[in-house]
Amino acid sequence: MFNDQKVSFSGVQPSGNLTIGNYLGALRNFSHYSEAYKCFYCVVDEHAITVRQNPADLRRRTYETLALYIACGLDPNKNTLYVQSHVHEHAELAWILDCFTMFGELSRMTQFKDKSAKHADNVNAGLFTYPTLMAADILLYQTDVVPVGIDQKQHVELTRDIANRFNQLYPDTFTVPEPVVSSTGMKIMSLAEPTKKMSKSDENVNAVVYILDDKDTIIRKFKRAVTDSDTEVRYADEKPGIQNLINIYSCFTGKKIPEIEQEFRGVGYGEFKLAVGEACSQALEGVQNAFKELMSDKKQLEDLMKKGSEEASWYARRTLGKVRKKLGFIQL
Ligand code: TYM
């Protein structure tokens, strides 16, 4: 809460091409808060370097992610949209929070366990302390709600623990944030292995539908999606492939699950998959057009980055100033 106004904060890493998982689990929910909340949405480039990035790709994806925020409906005049590395208070508060976060807590983070197994040759300290940088992102803005997919809920819960611990020692420092996870889009699964999360870093491009995939590619990918040897379009745990496709279709059309089962009763998987692909590509068309236009003017994107980081810095400085004073650091 800042000046009696509730705050929404979230972030996306520019570490790969964004997927429909990012869109349905996070991005498209960000704008729900634009009217009633003070909103900060950040492109978290500092988080991205916990795994090795090609500098040119990181730079390009940072522009693209900002453009996608806007293309997905975030008005830069109503939301503070910016890049994490442009506001140095994030890294500074992260160090302070490191001193209030336990080794055991960080060791229990599922994402750390997964990523350190996947990048066994580069289990760096940043990968380990990733959640304290995320806590700094959130706590700097006195955030009330954090719209995220289910995979990030554990990190927001740790942020709550850190905030409560800090507040106990130094009362009234941070607002304690709530994770907000949408009921349908919270976990979109891989099209190739439907028991695994759809991830922008998946090496199998057919397992993932990217927000910027063209219509033919989207339809081809859904056609190839792994399902089962049954023929019934039914929402059931033993049919994870079909369950995932029903979820995706529900997200893009707004139809409820029983309605979808009814719509495709007696129809084969082929026809159902085609309908999912069409609903998806139709829903993304507007986003893709807006994205292309935004990317054609880099200067405008840079101006927006500058405006966003100036706004964000103002709030970040206020919180960090309070923290420094409470800790006993000398103000000159
Ligand atoms: P990232 O970049 O991996 O993902 C961005 C957002 O997309 C959601 N998401 C999904 N939702 C549903 N189904 C999926 N398959 C799927 N894949 C990704 C994620 O849950 C996330 O909401 N650590 C964060 C970025 C971050 C952040 C923050 C988020 C940094 N600081 C502060 C919130 C608040 C991350 O890696 O997200």
Outline the structure in words:
By secondary structure, the chain is mainly α. The protein folds into two domains: 7-181 and 298-327, Rossmann fold, CATH 3.40.50.620; 205-291, Tyrosyl-Transfer RNA Synthetase (Orthogonal Bundle), CATH 1.10.240.10. Helix content is 53%, strand content 7%. The protein has helices at residues 20-30, 45-48, 55-71, 89-98, 103-107, 110-118, 125-140, 153-169, 215-223, 240-253, 257-263, 269-295, 298-327, and strands at 7-12, 38-43, 79-83, 145-147, 178-180. The protein has a three-stranded parallel sheet with strand order 1-2-3. The chain has a two-stranded parallel ribbon with strand order 4-5. Helix 4 (89-98) runs parallel beside helix 13 (298-327). Tryptophanyl-5'AMP (TYM) is lined by residues 9-13, 21-22, 24-26, 44, 47, 134, 137-138, 146, 148-149, 151-152, 185-188, 197-198.
* Secondary structure: number of strands: 5
The unreliable regions are none
Strand order of the largest sheet: 1-2-3
- Proportion of residues in helical segments: 40-55%
Number of domains: 2
CATH class identity of the largest domain: Alpha Beta
* Rounded mean pLDDT score: 96
Order of helices and strands: EHEHHEHHHHEHEHHHHH
Instruction: Determine Rg (CA atoms, Å).
Output: 21 Å
CATH topology of the largest domain: Rossmann fold
Named at the architecture level, the CATH assignment of the largest domain is 3-Layer(aba) Sandwich
| Alpha-beta classification | mainly alpha
- Proportion of residues in β-strands: 5-15%
Q: Helical stretch count?
A: 13
